[in-house]
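This part of the workshop introduces the protein records we will be handling. The structure tokens are whole numbers drawn from a learned vocabulary of backbone shapes. The record below serves as our worked example for the rest of this section.

===
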Amino acid sequence: MNKKNKPRCVCAPDCSNITWKGPVCGLDGKTYRNECALLKARCKEQPELEVQYQGKCKKTCRDVFCPGSSTCVVDQTNNAYCVTCNRICPEPTSSEQYLCGNDGVTYSSACHLRKATCLLGRSIGLAYEGKCIKAKSCEDIQCTGGKKCLWDFKVGRGRCSLCDELCPESKSEEPVCASDNATYASECAMKEAACSSGVLLEVKHSGSCNSLVYNFFQEFYIIFLESRTSSFIHWSGSQNCYSFDPPLLRTGRSKQPDGIDVQARNYNK
């Protein structure tokens, strides 16, 4: 009852039987303070939310102990998940059960997709509901559940993604280097940029793109000019372009002042 003695709905799960008091990783890939906090979130807005494993959500399967017969796999966003390898999946009873995976393969049901994920040892991911089609752009793909189609130029396929997530203002999140070689304040900020542009972005690695050897490639790019007698390297700043030497070409070596050794293409004939 509220102050006006009128009934109201409240989320007050019974947490008395919970023995693990530490943080837990939810099925949504988010870390919750404890299992009771997760149960409250499930009550409020996520009825299918479950505990995946005890401890904070991780980016690797190392030190992840999945309950029961479930197996740890790492998805396309480098998050560790626990999935169950069902030996037998029931045959689909409706065409609405078909799912298109991120690998471009049509799966008969969510069960078949989970089974393939488990056997593969890494997440395949759901591109969109229904059978896979030969889409030329996101205009050919119909997303459901408020999702938006993002185009993956690397493989030439579309993927339906949630684009309603609001990024927290907290500065505690770690920056990430994305597949467009740009640094984003967080993985959430990267997803926000992807939703804004309609182009799929994925995490290449944690931290700034300027870190370690990426700093070298970020600050300089190589322009190769073909010549019949010689080749040379022109260095310029603040570009995101770099190239590795193909094994079948003759190579020269150029050493920068910072000591980083790179292979240069030699087009001498």
